[in-house]
Write a structure and sequence with these properties.
The chain is α/β, with parallel strands linked by helices. The protein has a domain at 3-95 and 160-223: Rossmann fold (3-Layer(aba) Sandwich), CATH 3.40.50. It is built from 6 helices and 10 strands; from the N terminus they run βββαββαβαααβαβββ. Strands 6-7-8-3-9-10 form a 6-stranded mixed beta sheet. It has a 4-stranded antiparallel beta sheet with strand order 2-1-4-5. β4 (60-65) and β5 form a beta hairpin. α3 packs across α4, α3 (101-111) runs parallel beside α5 (145-156) and α4 (116-129) packs across α5.
Length: 232
């Protein structure tokens, strides 16, 4: 198991009371598998993703990343954990307009202290993996929406994470481009053995997932059996 949430509860202040965002949630995501998270707006999907990313500390319960329980870790230790073991694909790519596709990725590696040469080699490898080797020198305004999202995915993989968290990757894309992005996420999950969680409103792409969980009122209401990930 690369990602585990055990009996996780998260609440927020709401006037004189507290609002429950996650209610005793337990979820295990094995390596090389894709779990899709669905549910209505306000159901707790974003909170689940934020807790899994260690961006928010739950009131109770345990979050485990690649065998490491996160409770008790310092802020610096959590930052280091996110930097080396967690990749996050945000809903909007938020690419820097002045940087090329390759440079968007290289920035991530430079933050981690890699040499420029190693960073460029890794960036070009990942752009090739997402089908954008021929667009490495293009800036965001020269890329389509689907291509920008592919750069976003490649950037999340730059530091070789074991956990990949994806937030609404198809929300700004048409059906065809959205399907291509989900297929890419699925393929990379298998190839790179990441434990991937994808939050989505688009149920048309759920057949790509190994498992689908539905969040309602902060609880996991339904879990479809996980399929065995193909090998080879």
């Amino acid at each position: 198991m690369s990602l585990g949430l055990t009996d996780v509860t998260l609440t927020y202040p709401d006037g004189e009371t507290r609002l429950t965002a996650l209610d005793r949630v337990t979820l295990d995501v094995p390596k090389g598998s894709l779990t899709a998270v669905v549910g209505p707006s306000g159901s707790g999907k974003s909170s689940l993703l934020a807790v899994a990313a260690t961006l928010i500390t739950p009131d109770s319960g345990t979050v485990t990343i690649d065998g490491t329980p996160t409770s008790g870790l310092s802020r610096g230790e959590l930052t280091d954990l996110r930097r080396h073991r967690i990749g996050i694909v945000f809903q909007q790519p938020n690419l820097l307009p002045s940087l090329t596709a390759a440079e968007q990725l290289q920035v991530m590696a430079r933050i981690d202290g890699r040499s420029p040469a190693r960073a460029r080699t890794r960036a070009l490898e990942l752009l090739d993996a997402v089908g954008l080797a021929h667009r490495a020198r293009r800036r965001p305004h020269q890329l389509s929406g689907g291509q920008r999202q592919r750069v976003n995915i490649a950037r999340a993989l730059m530091n070789d994470p074991t956990v990949l968290l994806v937030d609404e990757p198809t929300s700004a894309l048409d059906h065809e481009r959205g399907a291509a992005v989900v297929e890419l996420i699925t393929r990379l999950t298998r190839q790179r053995a990441t434990a991937t969680v994808m939050v989505t409103h688009d149920r048309t792409h759920l057949t790509a997932a190994d498992r689908t969980v539905e969040v309602r009122d902060g609880r996991l209401r339904r879990t479809a059996p996980i399929r065995t990930a193909p090998t080879g």
